Amino acid sequence: MAATKLRLLLHESITEPLATYIIELVPSAVLSRNTLGSGAEDPSVALYANRERRTIVAIDSDFMKHDVEWGVIKLNSPHRADDECLFAIFRMFWISGFRGTSKRRRTSLSNHGLKIKNGKEIEHEWHPKPCPNHGGN
Q1: What is the pLDDT of residues 2-45, one digit of tens each?
Q2: pTM summary value
Q3: What was the pLDDT predicted at 78?
Q4: Domain ranges of the chain
Q5: Residue 92: what are its φ and ψ, rounded to 5°?
Q6: Is residue 102 within 8 Å of 116, Cβ to Cβ?
Q7: What is the pLDDT of residue 60?
Q8: pLDDT given at position 1
Q9: Coil, helix or strand at residue 116
Q10: Are 56 and 30 in contact (CB under 8 A)?
Q11: How many CB atoms neighbour CB 81 within 10 A?
Q12: Which residues contact 109 (CB under 8 A, 6 or more apart)?
């Protein structure tokens, strides 16, 4: 794996089991609920991410309306996806070679692939899909 310094801030929409999997893969990742407290307002999370130069990882779309300088990675949950499936999608992204491209941009991850926005739009499909039993997103 290429060494890309993508510092992650895991939003509270990321479940504890999923956060544990991500932190095992990316030990420098931090949880917003540990640094800002549970229930921190999204503007506060965005300000913290900007100050600490961290990319927010979330399942919800709350950060579409906030200025997040270092980027947002949104996991689009396949219908009835479990934490293992969501982690498989995240891991596929992490080893894909698109990490550096996602820095300071908006990245959407799904079972089908990734889409990176803000500037030239990039789309990439996974082969094979990380969650073969999930036909949805």
Answers
A1: 445 899 999 999 999 999 999 999 999 999 999 999 999 999 99
A2: 0.91
A3: 67
A4: 8-125
A5: -60, -45
A6: yes
A7: 80
A8: 41
A9: strand
A10: no
A11: 22
A12: 73, 74, 75, 76, 89, 90, 92, 93
